[in-house]
């Protein structure tokens, strides 16, 4: 499978913001307050991915075409540690779903940063829950924990595991 994980650059910000808006619009079917079509879209922390060493932005390419993106933040939503890799955003574009590309992308992200990981999924996001459970279980051969969490008025499933 021709899948490439590439760090995003500042020049990618306009395109990334467009993708984030589409992603948030899609997620709003599970969390209606997440996206307001009447308001201009913004992602206030976007610039920090190029100035904060605890944040990382990646693009996924498949056969030379954009297939998704992910934003990683070294921050635990469970205990506040900056020693934990957290998938803040993760999107595979619809044309590339159910092809194994998302799983390959997630596994490459996990392998890129060793140590503790958290993957948070809103329980209302059934497609997200169906995607992440087997992806984490397959990668985390040393085991993982599922931790329920309530944050921002949503119930989340947090997967905790380690990458070596």
Structure description:
This protein is an alpha+beta fold. The protein has one domain: Aminopeptidase, CATH 3.40.630.30. The protein has 3 helices and 7 strands; from the N terminus they run E-H-E-E-E-H-E-H-E-E. It has a 7-stranded mixed sheet, sandwiched between helices. Helix 2 (101-112) links the parallel strand 4 and strand 5 (115-122). Helix 2 crosses helix 3. The chain starts with a strand and ends with a strand. The relative contact order is 0.16. The mean pLDDT is 93.
What is the strand and helix layout of this fold?
Elements (H helix, E strand, L loop, with lengths): L2 E5 L5 H15 L27 E8 L2 E10 L9 E9 L8 H12 L2 E8 L3 H14 L4 E8 L2 E10 L1
Parallel strand pairs: 4-5
Antiparallel strand pairs: 1-2, 2-3, 3-4, 5-7, 6-7
Helix pairs in contact: 2-3
């Amino acid at each position: 499978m021709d899948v490439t994980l590439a760090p995003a650059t500042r020049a990618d910000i306009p395109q990334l913001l467009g993708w984030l808006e589409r992603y948030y619009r899609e997620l709003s079917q599970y969390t209606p307050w997440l996206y307001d079509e009447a308001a201009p879209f913004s992602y206030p922390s976007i610039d920090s991915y190029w100035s904060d060493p605890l944040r990382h932005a990646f693009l996924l390419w498949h056969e030379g075409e954009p297939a998704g993106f992910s934003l990683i933040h070294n921050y635990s939503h469970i205990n506040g540690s900056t020693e934990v890799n957290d998938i803040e955003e993760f999107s595979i574009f619809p044309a590339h779903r159910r092809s194994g590309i998302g799983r390959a992308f997630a596994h490459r992200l996990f392998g890129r940063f060793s140590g503790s990981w958290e993957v948070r999924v809103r329980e209302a996001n059934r497609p997200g829950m169906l995607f992440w459970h087997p992806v984490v279980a397959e990668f985390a051969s040393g085991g993982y924990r599922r931790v329920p969490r309530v944050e921002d008025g949503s119930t989340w499933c947090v997967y905790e595991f380690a990458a070596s």
